[in-house]
Specification:
The chain is mainly beta and 126 residues long. Helices cover 0% and strands 50% of the residues.
């Protein structure tokens, strides 16, 4: 069974940076497309970033140029480097894993992710 554990959330000020990490256990990490999603209070969960097995990436327009997703197959981790944070980035951030037959597609569809972490809170103050 795949397990995902996020870390690195916290309270920061606008303009600061934060790095989230997600560790996968239970299966071979390199088989999975990895994604980050977030959910703000009263809003639906939304796509943030994803990286395919072969390293292709996709980003939400709202975070392009500020966030960077990366993966380390030797450590079974996926990271989300968040720079120039804004108050509207405040949300619970979830890591997700998708077992996929496409090594090149960084999918943004939540329905394609079968495994989810418990989430980590990111709060950006003005």
């Amino acid at each position: 069974q795949v397990q995902l554990v996020e870390s690195g959330g916290g309270l920061v000020q606008a303009g600061d940076s934060l790095r989230l990490s997600c560790a996968l256990s239970g299966r071979t990490f390199s088989w999975y497309t990895m994604g980050w999603f977030r959910q703000a209070p009263g809003k639906e969960r939304e796509f943030v970033a994803a990286m395919s097995v072969r390293g292709n990436t996709a980003y939400a327009d709202s975070v392009k140029g500020r966030f960077t997703i990366s993966r380390d197959n030797t450590k079974n981790t996926v990271n989300l480097q968040m720079n120039s944070l804004k108050p509207e980035d405040t949300a619970v951030y979830f890591c997700a894993a998708a077992a996929t037959t496409s090594y090149y597609t960084a999918t943004a569809r939540p329905s394609e992710y079968g495994y989810w972490g418990q989430g980590t809170q990111v709060t950006v103050s003005t």
